[in-house]
Amino acid sequence: MEYCPINSKAPNHLNLEKKYFFIKQVIRGVQFLHNIGIIHRDLKPTNILLGNDNNFKIIDFGFSDLISPFEKLNDSLGSFGFFPPEILNKKEYNIKIEYWNIGIMTFLYLYHYFPFGECSHYNDIMLFDVNKFINDDNKNYGEYNYYVNKMKQIILSCLNLNIIDRGCKLNQIIND
Q1: What are the helix (H) ranges across the chain?
Q2: CB neighbour list of residue 26: distance below 8 Å, 6 or more residues apart
Q3: What are the residue ranges spanned by the domains of the chain?
Q4: Which residues, at least 6 apart from 68, have a Cβ–Cβ distance to it below 8 Å?
Q5: Of 2, 103, 160, 166, which residue is least crowded by CB atoms under 10 Å?
């Protein structure tokens, strides 16, 4: 067991480059879990800690389960504000719901609020045009523009309403 003194819930002490590095580590960690057949189902900032080695650790596997790549689940586990449309709509889902959580976290770290509110309802998600919001953000982030653009690409890939396409571009985004 390792002592992790800093919880990622308050990443405001991190600059945008480090936030992007954090999100990349979370993506790789989730991909690793999926490759060994584990779905976490409660990815959120309070379940990610920063270790003494400056690497992030995914914790709290209380809602996790074993899953095959094409298996579907239908239980409503997770945390409000991070629920993907499939859970809010009581539909079956697969491992790609976790990319929705990554999109929410990335949005939080970039804009400092939830895109759909902390207690999202399906209608909130349908009314918020993520593409328009991201494309209308013309703020100049100076030396961090590269990292902000990468984070925006992650948000657009992960907050895709179509679960089939959700997260499909992540490897391309984080490996450029």
Answers
A1: 16-35, 85-88, 97-111, 122-127, 130-136, 145-158, 170-175
A2: 43, 48, 56, 58, 102, 105
A3: 12-59+76-171
A4: 37
A5: 2
Write the pLDDT tens digit of every residue in 70-83: 899 999 999 888 98
- The CA distances from residue 153 to 7, 29, 74, 95, 146, in Å, are 25, 19, 28, 20, 11
| Interatomic CA distance for residues 170 and 38, integer angstroms | 19
Which one of 42, 136, 137, 176 is the catalytic residue? 42
- Looking at domain 12-59+76-171, its CATH superfamily turns out to be Transferase(Phosphotransferase) domain 1 (1.10.510.10)
Identify the pLDDT of residue 10.
47
* 176 is annotated as an active-site residue: no
Structure tokens at 138: 């013309």
Q: Whose CA is closest to 103, among 154, 149, 169, 59?
A: 154
Predicted TM-score (pTM) of the model is 0.90
Q: Are strands 6-7 and 56-58 parallel, antiparallel or unpaired?
A: unpaired
Are 115 and 127 in contact by the 8 Å Cβ rule? The answer is: no
Distance set, CA 31 to CA 15, 45, 92, 122 (Å): 24, 17, 20, 26
